[in-house]
Structures are given as C-alpha cells and as structure tokens.
Design goal:
This is M14 family metallocarboxypeptidase. The chain is α/β, with parallel strands linked by helices and about 300 residues long. The chain has 8 helices and 10 strands. The protein has an 8-stranded mixed sheet, with helices on both faces. The chain has a two-stranded antiparallel ribbon with strand order 7-8.
Length: about 300
C-alpha cells in the first residue's frame, strides 16, 4: 500500500479534521477492555492496590485508566514501573504485564515497589489500533501539554515518582500490520510519501541513546532467548532503520521522541518488541517473552542496589 492508494485523504496533503473523523468512523470495536483487562485487574485487588489514575471519555465510551500498585508501598524502596498497551493493538504488552503481576509480583514484596499500568490505550486496545481516536500515536506524545489523553494521564501518574524510579520497562510488539496499515496511514495522515520498510523477525529491545545500559539490555536478551528467538539485523546491520548496537538491541532518544520509556528518568529503561506474526512464535510465547523480559530487567536492576539492612 502507498499513500497514493490509502483510502483516506489526498496524497501529499496532511489530514484535517474531516479526514481524522473519517478515519475514526472506520474503526470498529473488536474486543472488550472491560472484559479482558478491567476484569483481570479487579481480580488482583485481593493482593494489590488498584489506582484509577484517570478516565477517557470518547463519545459514548468510558475507559477507566488503571494501575496496579504494591499494597505495602514503602518509600524507602526502589520503584519498578511496567507499562503495556501504549499501542493498544500490541496484545502481548497488555497481557504480558498482567501475567507478570499475577504470577510473579509477589516475588518482590519487601524488596521494591511495583507499579504496573497494563493498558495505557484502551480505545486502541478494543479496536486493535496503534492510534487513539484523534489519530494520535500515544508513544510519540509523552511530553508537556500532550494532546494525547492516554499519554497525559500516565505522565500525571508517574510525575510524583520522577527521580525515584529505578527501572521502567515498556512492553510492545512489532507486527506485520505496521507495514500493511499503520505506517501507510501515518504517511497519509502527515501528507508524506510512504517508504516501505522491513519487519524484524524476532524479539528486540530499544535502549536509550542518552543513557545506554548495555549490560541491562543483555540480561534481558539472554532471558528472552530461552523463550523465543532474537531478531537478527537486516542487510544494513539495522533493525527498523536503526543500527544494531548489540544482538537484538537498538537505541532511540527516548525522551526527545516522546516515548513512554523516557518518562521517569529511571536509571534502567527499555522498550521490548516481540514479533507475534512470526511463524516461529505463538501468542503464548509472546506473553512469556514479555514476562521473561520484565523479570530479567527487575532482577538485574535490583542487583545493582545495596540490600536494605533490617
């Protein structure tokens, strides 16, 4: 697909209000945030505190924004942040975050404070889409005065914790639909030509250009390699157009680009990317890979902090 054939807009002309409304009207609900996410969070209330940090009102749709917190929160302990579903269509990011807290959150009791926001973009989750209803990408919108309400809500949640977060891992997927739909839509929206790219086959990580942590990234890659395969570099030595700095690792300027993993100033940050469309991966492997990444990241980060004496 090219911008010349994308069904919305005029090639070379950025979308206006009419085109954005036309795009939004074409997005149909395909699954239920209430049944698949809110219900799962509610089942965790017996063990964790659940904080509603906002609500998104889009037409007749109401979406509570929920975060799961350690019940015995201790300000003397490091904070570990896990986010998923910043792009609502990236399913294992949501369910990987939920599976981690369900199965392994208790492992860190008394050692750290956990904060998990499993589905940052519920409208996108229901419609299996990258954008919010205003045709905005939440993962390019984490900055002051953000026009994306999903991003602004999460920024408000973590603002009191800036400078106290030890690790933040943001769970994502790279899918075939990035090339077939989302990047062509982005080009059409912005009135630019669409230049086809290559989808990496496997798991990879996005480190921070300003604060690279190669040993942290390697610990996660090693753990995930036991669950699913790691994406190789393409013929140019790149993954999604960025140089590969270590097997399965590239770097972005997280904060400058308005990416979720840059919102806390944490010492250890990364964005995971699994490939659910690979013939070598299953949805179960994708969820398990996200959990393995979270656990490895946390274990590495906590190992760098002196244990608290009783």
């Amino acid at each position: 697909m090219t911008t010349d054939t994308y069904p919305i807009g005029t090639p070379g002309v950025p979308w206006g209000v009419e085109e954005r409304v036309q795009w939004r009207d074409g997005q149909m609900r395909k699954r239920s945030y209430a049944e698949e996410v809110v219900a799962a969070v509610d089942r965790l209330r017996v063990r964790y505190d659940v904080q509603q940090y906002g609500q998104l009102d889009y037409g007749d749709d109401r979406y509570p924004l929920l975060a799961i917190r350690s019940r015995d929160w201790d300000d003397a302990l490091p904070v570990l942040l896990v986010t998923g579903g910043v792009h609502g269509y990236e399913t294992s990011g949501v369910h990987g975050a939920l599976r981690f807290i369900q199965r392994h959150g208790g492992d860190y009791a008394g050692r750290a404070n956990l904060l998990v926001a499993p589905c940052v973009s519920p409208w996108g989750y229901e419609r299996i889409h990258r954008w919010n209803p205003d045709a905005l990408d939440p993962n390019r919108s984490f900055h002051a005065d953000s026009p994306a309400r999903e991003s602004a809500g999460l920024l408000r949640l973590v603002a009191p914790l800036r400078g106290r977060v030890l690790m933040h891992i943001d769970l994502h997927e790279t899918t075939d639909s990035d090339e077939s739909e989302f990047r062509p839509a982005l080009a059409a929206r912005d009135g630019k030509p669409f230049e086809p790219g290559e989808i990496p086959d496997g798991f990879y990580l996005v480190d921070d250009t300003r604060n690279p942590q190669p040993a942290f990234q390697q610990a996660i890659i090693d753990a995930v390699a036991e669950v699913t395969h790691i994406a190789p570099a393409d013929g140019n030595g790149e993954i999604i157009g960025s140089p590969v700095v270590a097997p399965g690792v590239i770097r972005y300027a997280l904060e400058e680009l308005g990416l979720c993993a840059g919102i806390t100033g944490a010492r250890f940050t990364t964005t995971t990317e699994v490939y659910p469309d690979s013939p070598r991966a299953t949805p179960e492997q994708c969820n398990a890979a996200q959990v393995a990444a979270v656990r490895a990241g946390i274990d590495f980060a906590l190992a760098q902090v002196p244990a608290r004496t009783p």
